[in-house]
């Protein structure tokens, strides 16, 4: 596919990266139904690790099989498929080259209350499995945040040297934040900014609410009349917080909602200038036909003119 | 021995592994009485380290000698012998090539209440001792789980580079689990899935009970009517949780039971589609003739048509 | 630009450094309006990371864009621009060579009460981004101080081997210091001395108050009648504490104050023999024209004869 | 000296070791009065570090000098001399080649209640000082046991690669053990077994009492009627616990006792099939002539037919 | 200068060291007024780091300048100058070759109650600055002692490989010791012995009092009638505890005392067979002329026949 002006503009923002990394960002943006638009829809499947296999896959048993997710992402025309080491290993040969993959390099589980993760994959693993990017989760505000940032620094350095892209899941949680605080607009914007400062190429955060959490920040948002009234306005602020749009910011689908509620969120992300969505449970826990329908509706939204 | 269709099908699931690792998986599946069936019975002897030598070997004193276990496993026609560094070193020369061996690379003892292990063997040790695989224990749910997963990541990476197979003992324990929870069906399935995500080639878990432990999981199992009523059904669910059967899952024999109870468990594992058993105390604590009889009965079960 | 006697005198103080490091110190002192004077004004932009993007940039939204800061520093004729990894990556290509840059290699955020930082950039990053120096923050008196000093030792050693300069932000905080103690004159002088002992080429501390904090030090200051009555006298004492002026010591602008108060502080720094200022929030939170006016006034002060 | 059948039989047990390590085991067994018997008496001098110099050497002041110990061990016809780094460095040149030496690579002191040790010597040190073996202490049951086992793993691996032998002092202590428990027969046997599993060539434990400590073990010892009534029976059980005699197990002299009591212990070790003694304070705290007499009596015991 | 018999005798005690290290020990003993006598007086200046710059240098302001100390040590005819990284870097070029230097590789400050230090210099730093030795402080009895010993092991190994000498400051402190205990004779002797066991070439301890601290040691000192009545007797015991005089032991000047009291201590050190003094605050806090006079008096004492 030829390079579109929009994709070229986005690639130009990565002005310190090697041709290898730019080529992988290109691949991520030039695959599937959204190819060339600068928008991305990614299928992540780490819920088996994070929540357990029964809780994740029993609603749609074919989803126990890693091949199911590869083929779903390909058939739906998504931009990429992201998963932990074992799941990628189980399909990387069969589907080699058919869709860009992202090795989720750290993971947590539901068997602990520690707000931490284990690094379970490496850049070397990503390379041998033919991935385009590594994925890494940080928990800003947790007691482990500095440790996680330092792990990310090392892995991002390695990834960039190897021509891979770096995708950061930035999920604030910790002693200073209650449940509402984790998705407050000042906190989501902060999470996106931290990921950008850490050198992420692609940043994943949750859709922000209109809560304001940190008192010192709240004062400024009110004094400066920052527009956070609507989801598109908040999405715009989060994207602005990632170097004024110089970094790709995508958003998760959040807790299981009605399909219409989910599509409303997608519309808000698109209207606010978000670069796309990363959406897992809401698709693979439905029957395949319904999932394909939903993913078609989502990509259609991102194909609309704003 | 020629490659059987069943072994070929299993090997094909390891689509991201090198020929070296596949060759060692082949050796593990093509040795002994079960050669070519895709079923495995393995003799593990780490109880001296885990429980102490007197408690483990006094019931059958010839078992103090490492050579006893090598020759027992060979004579019984088992697939492999697994033990910690010192025990393998004590027989690896005498029995070189006669049976595949698995270096158990971490161990605990009964002198502490810490739910942790020490890494006591390395991939380099496994190579110099002619092993086919490394073995590694993780305790999902323990305070040390993330540390253990990171140790495993490094050792598995090294092992795969060296053409070895990786066997993971996945034994949940920790503050969120009571004794019943450790073998609850949702927890055993979760343990198998985590090991699969970590890149294990062969996964060892305990036979699951019909308990359900985590509330969020319990709800899904009930809502989705997951069949966990019988041991074969539960075995099937655990195997399904390891990438829909794409990974070899074997089961321990559990606490010392009557021989008939033990054989019933073996039958349940076989009927549920389990790949085999790993069985230690129940064999080497009996007189040799009785142990050979029992192991013969076990392999006979796995040779039956389901 | 030719080497002025003042710059030569300063460079001669770095008698154990390589030509590479001296060349970078030369670049830092021979750029912008203050070139050749031995005085420096540096723009640091790490407040997005330290305080959050909204709180830092909402008062002047163009400042969300990393390019804004590069061009502000260049247009104002400053000596250097300092920022964390991501912000430098976002502009290092566009502005390559136009102004010396300092990679701020560790950062904290406002989402924790831990008095610690994460190392988020490396010497290798500084080199690939064309930086003249690395920047590193230590918190003398914190529970993490020795760990931070050891991190700095490793990074400074690497930087010196690579011909980079080392800029140390020395900000005392911890259980032995209350808020007033953090800027007490004995503590600021101590902070500068520790940074000098650690091998810093350029030391950044806060402007000191006339408080005296540590009892054993207080006694000596009083007995020896050390002059700490005026800001210039205190600045002189801090510079003296950094090897009698053999190390470049610059001062932060401190909390947001009136412009006149800020310029008074700058005058005090200049009169006391300080080597310059590092000033962020006070500039980029104003409209660009006002910021340029203020920076012009500041550089004019440093151009005055004392 | 020619290879005796007994030494050959012992060397054959080390079937996974390199010729380099076997050569050093040969040297240890073929030096001094016990050469060729497969029995060893070793002089260890780490009490200066462990208990302090005055407490250790004031009873016999010539013992402050490292040369004293070298020459005592040589003159007494012992198999080896073991000491920490500094003490070996102080005599390794003068006595080069005259007696095998063992570098005690970790040490503790009497200035702390932590049940831990510092690693103070390395395999590289052992090689440059011409040692035949490294010595390493583990405290099974202590909070540091897993850490110590991992340190030992790394050092043993290095030592074996370099052709050195590995001697492990296995001294249980920690929260689960009271003073009596530390020398209980089940615990001493467990300590010997753990050291064997960790890959030790030579294992040093304390002479066991007839106490039984761990309830689960106690039950088995009683049920199986394990003979622990006499010291020779207990020594036999400990040796059996180290792979049925496939590993050299030697015993310490224990607390200062009457000479006759000490010789009784030696007789018990010999009769029970122990491989020898490691005896420090009981010799170097006496006048030299008395020490030589005592060591002569000890070696005479080990020369007797059992 | 030719090799004197006394210096040769001392060098011969370092029988496991390389010619490189012996050459540096030779340089340390063959410089200044005491050249060839085997006695050493060393100027250490780390008080700026340990106590703060004002408290250390305000009594004699020229001492803020690192060059002051270099030239004082040279003019006074001392054997060596010891300081942390920054202070050496500030003068190493100007005074290259004029006096042996010791890089003090770890330091603490007065801003914490942690009984620990940060490693702030390396062997590579010592080599590039032309030093003859590294200096390292351990706090036996502190909670960090084993960690510090392991740091020292690594640095000493590197230093010896590079032909440098190793000077260990051994300062007991920690939960088992009260203030008096830190300088009790059994503790000072123990501190010297530990440093010797760790492989130190030169050991610095504090002058001991006649207190006895550890009960088990106290009993032996009394039973064996160890002479600790006078300072020379105690110095003799400390030197004896460092391998019967095979290691150079020097003593600090202690807290600021009257000049006459200080000279009495020096006489006691000399009479007891101490190898010299390391003396900082007592010299550089006086006017230069007085300091030179005092240092002249001290070296004169060490030149006297005993």
From TrEMBL, chains A, B, C, D, E:
<dbReference type="GO" id="GO:0006096">
    <property type="term" value="P:glycolytic process"/>
</dbReference>
<dbReference type="InterPro" id="IPR050456">
    <property type="entry name" value="DeoC/FbaB_aldolase"/>
</dbReference>
<keyword id="KW-0456">Lyase</keyword>
<dbReference type="InterPro" id="IPR013785">
    <property type="entry name" value="Aldolase_TIM"/>
</dbReference>
<keyword id="KW-0704">Schiff base</keyword>
<feature type="active site" description="Proton donor">
    <location>
        <position position="171"/>
    </location>
</feature>
<dbReference type="InterPro" id="IPR041720">
    <property type="entry name" value="FbaB-like"/>
</dbReference>
<dbReference type="GO" id="GO:0004332">
    <property type="term" value="F:fructose-bisphosphate aldolase activity"/>
</dbReference>
<dbReference type="InterPro" id="IPR002915">
    <property type="entry name" value="DeoC/FbaB/LacD_aldolase"/>
</dbReference>
<comment type="similarity">
    <text>Belongs to the DeoC/FbaB aldolase family. FbaB subfamily.</text>
</comment>
<dbReference type="Pfam" id="PF01791">
    <property type="entry name" value="DeoC"/>
</dbReference>
<protein>
    <recommendedName>
        <fullName>fructose-bisphosphate aldolase</fullName>
        <ecNumber>4.1.2.13</ecNumber>
    </recommendedName>
</protein>
<feature type="active site" description="Schiff-base intermediate with dihydroxyacetone-P">
    <location>
        <position position="204"/>
    </location>
</feature>
């Amino acid at each position: 596919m030829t390079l579109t002006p929009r994709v070229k503009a986005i690639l130009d923002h990565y002005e310190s990266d090697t041709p290898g990394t730019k080529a992988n960002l290109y691949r991520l943006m030039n695959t599937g139904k959204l190819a060339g638009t600068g928008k991305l829809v990614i299928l992540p499947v780490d819920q088996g690790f994070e929540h357990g296999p029964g809780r994740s896959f029993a609603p749609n048993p074919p989803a126990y099989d890693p091949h199911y997710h590869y083929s779903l992402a390909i058939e739906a025309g998504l931009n990429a498929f992201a998963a932990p080491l074992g799941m990628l290993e189980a399909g990387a040969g069969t589907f080699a080259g058919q869709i860009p993959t992202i090795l989720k390099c750290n993971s947590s589980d539901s068997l602990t209350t520690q707000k931490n993760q284990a690094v379970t994959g490496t850049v070397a693993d990503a390379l041998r499995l033919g991935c385009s990017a590594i994925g890494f989760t940080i928990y800003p505000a947790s007691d482990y945040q500095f440790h996680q940032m330092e792990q990310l620094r090392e892995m991002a350095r390695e990834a960039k040297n190897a021509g891979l892209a770096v995708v950061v899941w930035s999920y604030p949680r910790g002693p200073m934040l209650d449940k509402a605080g984790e998705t407050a607009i000042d906190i989501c914007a902060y999470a996106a900014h931290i990921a950008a400062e850490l050198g992420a190429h692609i940043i994943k955060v949750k859709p922000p609410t209109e809560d304001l959490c940190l008192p010192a920040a709240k004062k400024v948002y009110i004094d400066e009349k920052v527009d956070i009234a609507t989801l598109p306005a908040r999405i715009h602020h989060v994207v602005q917080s990632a170097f004024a749009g110089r970094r790709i910011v995508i958003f998760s689908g959040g807790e299981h909602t009605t399909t219409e509620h989910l599509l409303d969120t997608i519309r808000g992300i698109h209207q606010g200038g978000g670069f796309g969505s990363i959406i897992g449970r809401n698709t693979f826990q439905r029957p395949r036909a319904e999932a394909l329908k939903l993913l078609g509706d989502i990509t259609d939204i991102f194909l609309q003119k704003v």
